[in-house]
Specification:
2 copies of one chain form a homodimer.
Chain A: H1 7-27, H2 33-44, H3 49-56, H4 60-72, E1 76-80, E2 88-92, H5 94-114, H6 120-134
Antiparallel strand pairs in A: 1-2
Chain A binds a DNA duplex through helix 4.
DNA sequence: TATTGTTATACTCTATAACTATA
DNA sequence: TATAGTTATAGAGTATAACAATA
């Protein structure tokens, strides 16, 4: 079988294309994928920067800059954790919640367009297969 | 639905993880994904650097360095196209063909491990869905 | 001593523009 | 005038190590 038609190759390419299109959609609202992920994870529960780093899977030193940007734009707030004053608790501000909601809508539209070649059942099937595939690798889903 | 369980998000993450594991496997044989792709595409037919650039989807100026490296290692050869002396025809040397065969084996093993959570039928289904999804986006499959 | 967050530095990667040779 | 290939340079992005504050 040709290398370029294996599941692994197609998975890599699909990921690259999907990421590129998501980036474009998010850029329209002045967010990059990393900022979007921080908003997403922080929305669930107030997390420390270390915890965000672990769950998102990017270096702690990179989180600093992302949170700096989001804080300047008043989308998140740094609050000191009273139990451990080394830590911040990163929380979404009301405008952070609004921005996240808009971004979720935009990315959903991109996903919908991206999946256009698949009908409803096929999309559900794809999602289920990817969930099985990634469950072990994404402990913080 | 949580953002982190949508098909689009999972596709991005799966692509990133698959790419990372492929990179590691290829690094063991001193190849990066780009070099691997050039070997793959050049194996089918002798192509110009511009043509490789178009099909693989990376900048022509980046092809230069990749071909330089592969040529130094005697995995590919630059032959002038007699019909258009501006062009090279990039061809695989015998050791290039051997290196490609080894790399294909290594990446197949990685793919097999990556897809471990899915049984035979599920893998075939995933591949078929990804083919449908990517057919339009990958004109040079 | 270890951990959280931060900063600075150096390194890599990539995109741009300018160039040569050929068409 | 346009195209194939090349080179140089500048800019962005990232990883590393070192630091202050707190545990």
């Amino acid at each position: 079988m040709k290398v370029t038609t294996t599941a692994g190759y197609l998975l890599m390419k699909a990921g690259i294309h999907a990421t590129r299109e998501m980036e474009a959609a998010l850029a329209a609202m002045q967010l990059n994928p990393r900022e979007f992920l921080v908003l997403t994870y922080a929305a669930d529960a107030p997390l420390s920067q270390q915890e965000l780093s672990r769950r998102i899977g990017i270096d702690p030193t990179l989180i600093v800059g992302v949170v700096d940007t989001l804080e300047e734009r008043r989308l998140v707030a740094r609050e000191r954790d009273p139990d451990d004053r080394r830590r911040y608790a990163i929380t979404l501000t009301p405008s952070g919640q609004k921005a996240l909601a808009r971004a979720v809508e935009a990315t959903a539209a991109v996903e919908d367009a991206f999946l256009a070649p698949l009908d409803r059942a096929a999309r559900a099937e794809l999602r289920s297969l990817l969930m099985k595939l990634m469950k072990e690798r994404l402990p913080y889903l």
